[in-house]
């Protein structure tokens, strides 16, 4: 499993996602962190959208990510004495010499694990790092079937400023691979810098899941107790749900 955010996608990550996601999932995950006593691990910690706030609140939290570019940005936000909490590892084979009471893999981390055997290995690796009674929480989106079939064509999903007077735009195109349950995504960044318009492209696949496939996946792992929520307010799955939020317990 290899996955690296290109340099400028990491550079502008906070500008884009603090606007796009903070009002969606922040409260949910930060409340879970706040209510947890003991050690916590965030897999796919990125630039620290949750992590930095958790540290400020005094959480005993650790983070891992497989993108060096993202980790570099996160460490620049932290006091050097906290750098030991961050490691470059992935969900499939990360290792710590201690266990956790809560492990989270927010914002589609598991969708970057494309192969089913690696998905099982990842879940079991998480299980092995939990204390008895500990929980693992991860999320994937409910597939939009119309969008899956049609795809997207250069749809602008962010447009704003990254600095006063300097514009930033991101567009996204998607091409579905229905047989392999992949969404092949093509992102393009465009931004003003040095009196020029700069561009950077990034292509990345995401593995999408359906409800019962997700349930079967969890049930094939060492986890025997789990719930799947339908939104970040903690509601059960229903017809209009757009999220699968799995809460698994050891």
Q: How does the SSE layout of this entry go?
A:
Elements: H1 7-11, H2 13-34, E1 40-43, H3 51-56, E2 61-65, H4 68-77, E3 86-88, E4 100-105, H5 116-128, E5 130-141, H6 145-150, E6 152-163, E7 166-177, E8 182-193, E9 196-207, H7 211-220, E10 225-229, E11 243-249
**What would you call the shape?**
globular
What is the annotated CATH architecture of the largest domain? 3-Layer(aba) Sandwich
Question: What is the averaged pLDDT score?
Answer: 96
What is the CATH superfamily of the largest domain? Vaccinia Virus protein VP39
Q: List SSEs in N-to-C order.
A: HHEHEHEEHEHEEEEHEE
Strand content: 35-45%
Given this structure, which CATH class of the largest domain is correct? Alpha Beta
Strand order of the largest sheet: 3-2-1-4-5-11-10
Write the CATH fold name of the largest domain: Rossmann fold
Any idea how many domains? 2
Q: For this entry, what is the oligomeric state of its chains?
A: single chain
Largest sheet report: 7 strands, mixed
Please explain how this structure is put together.
The protein is α/β, with parallel strands linked by helices and 250 residues long. It folds into 2 domains: 7-141 and 209-249, Vaccinia Virus protein VP39 (Rossmann fold, 3-Layer(aba) Sandwich); 145-207, Single Sheet (N-terminal domain of TfIIb), CATH 2.20.25. The protein has 7 helices and 11 strands. It has helices spanning 7-11, 13-34, 51-56, 68-77, 116-128, 145-150, 211-220, and strands spanning 40-43, 61-65, 86-88, 100-105, 130-141, 152-163, 166-177, 182-193, 196-207, 225-229, 243-249. It has a 7-stranded mixed β-sheet with strand order 3-2-1-4-5-11-10, sandwiched between helices. It has a 4-stranded antiparallel β-sheet with strand order 6-7-8-9. The protein is globular, with a radius of gyration of 18 Å. The relative contact order is 0.15. The mean pLDDT is 96.
